[in-house]
Design a protein that fits this description.
This protein is an alpha+beta fold. It has 20 helices and 20 strands. It has 5 domains: 78 residues; 113 residues, OB fold (Dihydrolipoamide Acetyltransferase, E2P) (Beta Barrel); 271 residues, no CATH class; 46 residues; 141 residues, no CATH class.
Length: 674
């Protein structure tokens, strides 16, 4: 069966195109509904009146179907966009941006940062009006009590839109939250809200209580905090409590995928369930009953594990596979994958922008396509050697799909991924099997201490092994510049390479050569378009950071060169910078035919024999702003994050009637292009 003859694939591509169009173009819900209904009616007319007509008519019908499914993707996106719902809380907030009385319910606990515990909360009421919608709650860490899922609180607060990152090319937290349907945030502490209810009544609440019960019982044994956090991630889909050092070890070893419950986990669980429930097949209609039980258990596990995009994707796909296997239906894995994509994107279109969702499908498609081809390169006769070879081919095949996507998002390549996966994948079934047994026994308080100690030893050994892998820094290639054009051309290159490997024909050789040239051109274009000169005054609290880009070199001026953070690093990667030179902060920076005067806490600027184009205020200089403007008259004055907030507030008042003359980097880095 040829993959590209599969009708559902074409329709799925149309759905994906529609979701992308809806995301980047502002199309109203009403227009989406009208367009979809109109095109559906046209399709129906063409189907009944043109099906026996000449070929040109069928082409017209096909084009209309394509447009109809693109419009279905647009409609699905808009229907599931929270702000399009008339009951969304954003439509009921006070217009004068004052505080609102809100009642909210805790939905999900997120990974905390240094200062705040974070939660997704559902806004139930705004000023006594029933609403829906999710917001981000940031709770000061002086709050010792962890909020429970389904807890309901009332508070008086101001909902603040989530802001973009102030610096260029950094992780866009606002865009990430928007893709989760979260647009606003509010802050609180232990005294800012009143608890109204602590009754568990949702599936998420029951799943959270189930996980809490297991964790409470596990804490009676000798599991360390790191081991408990890994057990929670590995088996229960909860990664909030993993320490940064452990998380980085798994990431740098190329094994972070085992800490996200996904296809690998669900597939192993399906194999275990299929084996354990085999006796049911002896009953009348046993295969149907067995399929039903497996699907229910898989979805129950998906709910308990948090229902992330990767879990939903994997559970949908393996539910279809489970039914097909047990009912002896012939199924094509490509059909199964595409069917799961089609169903998920109709129900959850925003999953398309989830990195885990993209990586999961990229890995599975690559494994299905490339693993059989790689495995044929060597056919070991010994069972153990063959098993290790098959495992190795799976890990290598997955990289054909994962590598371009991970380079685009994470800009690094753990070259020892094959070694970590060669050990982990064969053992993961055993780890999951023992782990599920440990959780079940712990739930009923009958877990033997010796079994808990054995599992603790396994987790500890696994972590130490991955920490050793990640410590081999020579094999971790990081800060790889890779943009969207490189991603697209590399994926096309991989597809044409697969076509040639499957069928060594002249036309496939030509396709491959064309895509190789296309990929090289995308790299050349990316380097060439970033050869301009640019001055950037970054925003960093209590520090001054200035970047001067000249072609492929970045000159950095930092008040604390030992604590630069990731700001300039992200900028370097995104702009294809080849080298970085650290310099002390001068009083004047010359670039092209422009000058930047830097005034620090000493506030000295009186003996100038020229008028600077731009002025940077740093370290809270005590100056008379009106006198400064009179003497220098610059095009713009910039205040960075090293200044006291009270000073910035006072300077803003001075520039109230002088729009565009004053810029504070709190609202975004100052960028001057040449």
């Amino acid at each position: 069966m040829k993959l590209f003859n599969f009708t559902l694939l074409k329709l799925t591509i149309c759905i994906i195109a529609g979701i992308f169009i809806a995301n980047y173009l502002s199309i109203s819900l009403l227009n989406s509904v009208v367009t979809f209904i109109s095109l559906s009616l046209v399709c129906a007319v063409f189907f009944f009146y043109l099906k026996n007509k000449p070929k040109g008519s069928s082409i017209l019908f096909g084009a209309t179907v394509v447009l109809a499914f693109i419009s279905l993707g647009i409609l699905s996106y808009n229907l599931h966009l929270p702000k399009n719902n008339t009951r969304h809380y954003s439509h009921f907030l006070a217009e004068d941006n004052s505080e609102n009385t809100i009642i909210y319910k805790v939905e999900k606990r997120l990974k905390p940062n240094q200062f705040y515990a974070k939660y997704y909360v559902e806004i139930l009421k705004v000023n006594n009006t029933a609403t829906i919608g999710t917001a981000l709650l940031q709770l000061k860490k002086d709050t010792t009590k962890v909020l429970q899922i389904d807890d309901v609180f009332i508070t008086q607060t101001k909902l603040i839109p989530v802001l973009d990152s102030p610096n260029p090319d950094q992780f866009n937290y606002k865009d990430y939250l928007n893709k989760q349907g979260v647009y606003d945030q509010f802050y609180g502490d232990k005294n800012s809200a009143i608890l109204l209810s602590r009754n568990t009544h949702t599936l998420k609440g029951y799943a959270s209580a189930f996980r809490d019960k297991i964790n409470t019982n596990l804490k009676q044994y000798n599991f360390s905090n790191d081991e408990l956090s890994i057990i929670n991630a590995l088996l229960l889909g909860q990664r909030q409590d993993i320490s940064k050092s452990v998380y980085d070890s798994y990431t740098n070893a190329g094994a972070i995928h085992i800490l996200a419950v996904s296809g690998l986990h669900i597939g192993i669980i399906l194999l275990i369930l299929n084996l354990l429930l085999k006796p049911i097949e002896r009953l009348k209609h046993g295969k149907i009953l067995k399929s039903f039980i497996i699907v229910v258990l898989l979805w129950s596990y998906a709910i308990i594990a948090g229902g992330s995009a990767s879990i939903i994707r994997a559970t949908t796909m393996f539910s279809i596979i489970a039914i097909a296997i047990n009912l002896r239906r012939i199924t094509n894995i490509y059909n199964t994958l595409i069917t799961s994509v089609f169903i998920i994107l109709l129900i959850k279109p925003l999953f398309l922008f989830d990195v885990g969702f993209q990586l999961s499908y990229a890995a599975v498609f690559a494994i299905v396509a490339f693993q059989p081809l790689i495995a044929k390169l060597w056919l070991p006769k010994h069972k153990t050697t063959n098993f290790l070879w098959q495992t190795f081919t799976v890990t290598v095949a997955a990289q054909f799909g994962v590598l371009p996507v991970s380079l685009y998002y994470f800009h690094q390549f753990p070259s020892l991924f094959w070694l970590s996966n060669l050990v982990i994948i064969p053992l993961l079934g055993i780890i999951l099997g023992i782990g599920i047994l440990v959780l079940c026994l712990a739930l009923f308080n009958v877990l033997p201490s010796w079994l808990a100690d054995v599992f603790s030893y396994i987790i500890r050994t696994l972590t130490k092994f991955l920490q050793w892998i990640s410590s081999q820094e020579t094999f971790l290639i990081s800060d790889i510049s890779f943009n969207i054009f490189n991603l697209i051309t590399s994926l096309i290159l991989i597809i044409t390479f697969y076509m040639l490997w499957k069928s060594f024909k002249p036309k496939n050789i030509i396709f491959l050569l064309i895509t190789v040239i296309g990929f090289q051109l995308s790299i050349t274009h990316s380097n060439w378009t970033n050869r301009n000169s640019e001055l950037v005054i970054f925003h960093k609290s209590k520090q001054t950071q200035i970047g001067l880009k000249e072609k492929a070199t970045l000159y950095t001026f930092n008040s604390d060169s030992l604590n630069k953070g990731t700001i300039t690093r992200s900028y370097k990667v995104a702009n294809f910078i080849k080298s970085e030179v650290d310099k002390p902060i001068p009083n004047i920076i010359y670039i092209e035919n422009k000058t930047l005067l830097i005034i620090d806490s000493l506030g000295i600027y009186k003996d100038l024999n020229f008028n600077p184009d731009y002025v940077l205020l740093r370290n809270s200089p005590k100056i008379n702003m009106e006198r400064l403007l009179e003497k220098i008259n610059p095009k713009k004055i910039i205040a960075d994050g090293s200044n006291y907030k009270s000073y910035i507030k006072r300077w803003k008042e001075t520039f109230k009637n002088k729009k565009g003359l004053f810029h504070t980097t709190e609202k975004g880095a100052f960028i001057l292009k040449f």
